[in-house]
Amino acid sequence: MHSRSRWLRRLLWTLAVVVVLGLAAVGGAGWYYSGLVIDPVHEAGYPLEVTAVHGDEVTIKGGADTASPGTYGLTWADGNALLGPTTAAGAGTVTRKVTRVVRGELRPGVRAYLDRWLWGHATPAAAGVPYTDVTIPSPLGGLPGWRTEGVSRTWVIAVHGRNGGPGEALRVLPVFHSLGMPVLGITYRNDEGAPASPDGKLHLGATEWRDVAAAITYARGQGATGIVLYGWSMGGGIVPMTVRKLPGEPVKAMILDSPVVDWRSPIALGAEQMGVPGFLVTVGEWVVERRTGLSFDDVDHLRHAREFRVPTLVFVDDDDATVPPGPALRLAEARPDIVRLVRTAGGGHTGSWNADPARYERELKEFVTSL
């Protein structure tokens, strides 16, 4: 009887230890996965290798999107080139036309990445648009940015994506410059060179909207009477959060490119691509909320679709492997009265311009002039 009782106690203790260790492992995995979502990253990765350069053609190895149709940049640590169409594809390699080497030496052995921004973290000068460096006052401190010139009193405020920078807006600057509209390219908390948030974490738009609000205040102080908010990726989630939080501000329109309308969707997609079990995704989301104080329901703009009142232009690419286009498509379905939807294919995440620059710029110009 006593030996049976001892055996039962040992079994219960063993089960308790297993449960505690299991919970610790799950909690640790959830903590790690949450960090992939909310920890800022500013290191550039160079997954591609230049294997050959012949005349006006370059052969590159690696990556899953190097044959994407359209116009791209090829950016490496100390250089940049503009790429045209694919001319050949081999076993793990792609050969593309080189439109122009902007800076540096394009040679075999260079490590680079396919650059949808075209010029990487450059200034408007790369796009041939005059600009001035500015500092935008905010509650956390000065936010570095730049401002292009224009005669219009309607300004565009460009809000880049996660771990990005103002250079994401360079592709569209010539359109606004031709319309005489100033563009304010901003940084926000936790960007490189910008003040950190109190906890040093990304809040997926739940607090970053305050920095866009600071940019609106700055623009108004410089004479702007109307504002167009333009956001890419995470910036496309920050912009509608700003509009929801500041209904009285003179925001005339939103332009959203591959926007994160609902954060649960890209987190789930990223987990699937990494082979993370579904239950850990839920744990990771719970940990994100506890570590930051944000609510995934609050940053789900589809849930708040009826709150929007301003004309909205949305670009999505059907081959986006980073932010699923579904939520943005459902936002367009929910609000056909204000949303103008443009769908492309082959460009990938924030690559609608790259896939078809002429169409993108035509849609952009028609939308803006209709305001």
Q: Strand tally, please?
A: 14
Hey, roughly how much beta strand do the residues contain?
15-25%
- What's the CATH C level of the largest domain? Alpha Beta
Largest pleated sheet: 8 strands, mixed
- Count, helices: 9
CATH structural architecture of the largest domain: 3-Layer(aba) Sandwich
Query: What is the H level of CATH, i.e. the homologous superfamily of the largest domain?
Result: Alpha/Beta hydrolase fold, catalytic domain
Instruction: Report the radius of gyration as a whole number of Å.
Output: 23 Å
Write the H/E string, N to C.
Answer: HEEEEEEEEEHEHEHEHHEHEHH
Which percent range fits the helix content?
25-40%
The number of domains? 3
Overall outline = globular
Q: Which structural class is indicated by helix and strand composition?
A: alpha/beta
pLDDT averaged over residues: 92
Q: How far from one another are the termini?
A: 86 Å
CATH fold assignment of the largest domain: Rossmann fold
Strand order of the largest sheet: 7-8-10-9-11-12-13-14
Q: Which residues form runs of ≥5 with pLDDT under 50?
A: 11-27
GO molecular function, one term: serine-type peptidase activity
Keywords: Membrane, Transmembrane, Transmembrane helix
Domain Peptidase S9 prolyl oligopeptidase catalytic: 199-349
Transmembrane segments: 12-33
